[in-house]
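Q: I'm writing a short explainer about HSP20 family protein for a general audience and would like to include a description of its predicted shape. Could you first generate the structure from this sequence?
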Amino acid sequence: MLMRTDPFRELDRLTQQFFGAPGTASRPAAVPMDAYRDGSEFVVRFDLPGVTADSITLDVERNVLTVRAERAATAPDGAEYLVGERPRGVFSRRLFLGDALDTDRIEAGYDAGVLTVRIPVAERAKARRITVGSGDAKAQLTA
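A: Of course. Here's the predicted structure. Afterward I'll give you a sentence or two in plain language.
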């Protein structure tokens, strides 16, 4: 139902680690996530510590869910950083959603630095039981 999004994400993370401060590269920093199915919906949890809820945006276009958030610098203007390991700036993650998901009914909530997105399985994709008629029923249908 959910498809892997970026096979080069780990390489990108390592490149940012060695050649530039996290969150300052030309490409937005990646957002760690967990995804699992819970009954008739998929749940995706994104780690966004230190991000305010109003800086988070979710967009769906052609079965692609894009999550964007921004963490601003917390030091006052004019302060000199001695250590700057916490990423700041724009964070982004894209998920390619399967056709079996209902993108019109996506719900999201943010609590304790974790964005939880719930994506229901579309009615047309849910398992259903099909009754099998006997030979007599088939004969009645064709008569």
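A: For your explainer, you could say: Confidence is low (pLDDT under 50) at residues 21-27.
Q: Perfect, that's easy to follow.
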